[in-house]
Design a protein that fits this description.
Shape: globular
Number of strands: 5
Number of helices: 8
Helix content: 40-55%
Largest sheet: 5 strands, mixed
Strand order of the largest sheet: 1-2-3-4-5
Bound molecules: iron/sulfur cluster
Strand content: 5-15%
Length: 289
């Protein structure tokens, strides 16, 4: 059996940043305890669809057709199984279910053709791993689905989502992830990406945003504050559950106090908390109290 070694976090990705913002305890379970999670058909379908959209660009532009893309789905599923044989259990008892699932993956690929024309795109990068270290020492990392660079040098960052677009009032979450990537690209290449583009295959929507430097500096400040909070929780072992909609999909209810469970023993050393430094202001406040 695989041994999972607990270790303090040393970098931040958009998904883990979003975990911490939604529920610090979930972040702990995933990043520090590294508790296993059950694979889901929806997440696995997302992985297959992403692989198809990436692989299609291996072909010359004129051959990037819908039938070709559809034909890649089953092959990418097999390739994924070769790397992660445990996924076979998702459909072990129901061949019809697997056929339905593959057909849904093909529909998502088909919808992409209504939103973008791959024969007119030449991505500069696909599935690009990016990592940078900010001046503060915070390391940011992630994988960008696609980077397009115009002849003028303008950069567009593209991310595919196999789910539906959120209503406009909830678009900050997915845009935060894109601004995170934009900040990393800016720090790495010295160029603020011209456009961030989210392609929602589940609903057929495209959300775009053109960031500027002040946007990205705001994101950087937010990430630094988040990292401070994560560092504090790591040292004190104080990871609060924050129940919400996410609980319905959370694999860790059995370990969550909100559901009557107990977290496993904290695997890291808890640092003793030093008393808050006394300042002139606080002394005055005490004297007035
Ligand atoms: S069940 Fe809900 S509150 Fe508990 S860890 Fe999971 S997301 Fe957090």
């Amino acid at each position: 059996m695989e041994t999972r070694v607990a270790s303090p976090p040393n970098s931040l990705s958009p998904s883990r940043a979003s975990d911490f913002m939604q529920c610090p305890l979930l972040y702990r379970f995933r990043v520090i305890d590294k508790l296993p999670e059950k694979p889901s058909p929806a997440a696995t379908r997302g992985t297959v669809v992403h692989a198809v959209l990436e692989r299609l660009f291996d072909a010359p532009a004129e051959q990037r057709s819908l039938p070709r893309a559809r034909s890649l789905v089953a092959g990418e599923w097999e390739r994924l199984l070769a790397r992660r044989p445990e996924l076979r259990e998702l459909f072990a008892e129901d061949g019809a279910e697997l056929a339905r699932w593959l057909a849904e993956a093909e529909s998502l690929v088909e919808r992409w053709f209504a939103l973008e024309d791959p024969s007119r795109l030449e991505p500069a990068e696909r599935e690009l791993f990016v990592e940078t270290k900010l001046e503060s020492g915070l390391r940011l990392r992630g994988i960008i689905d696609r980077v397009d660079v115009a002849p003028t040098g303008e950069v567009r960052i593209v991310d595919y989502k196999t789910g539906k677009a959120p209503p406009p009032q909830f678009s900050d979450g997915p845009l935060f992830q894109m601004k995170f990537y934009a900040l990393v690209v800016w720090r790495l290449r010295g160029v603020v990406p011209r456009r961030l583009q989210l392609v929602f295959l589940g609903s057929g929507d495209v959300l775009t945003y053109d960031p500027d430097e002040s946007d990205l500096l705001r994101v950087e400040r937010k990430l630094l504050a988040l990292w401070e909070a994560i560092t504090r929780a790591t040292e004190t072992g104080d990871w609060r559950p924050s129940p919400g909609k996410l609980c319905n999909w959370c694999d860790h209810q059995a370990h969550c106090p909100e559901f009557g469970g107990s977290p496993p023993p904290y695997p890291l050393t808890v640092q003793p908390r030093l008393p808050e430094p006394r300042t002139e202001g606080s002394e005055e406040a005490e004297a007035e109290a």
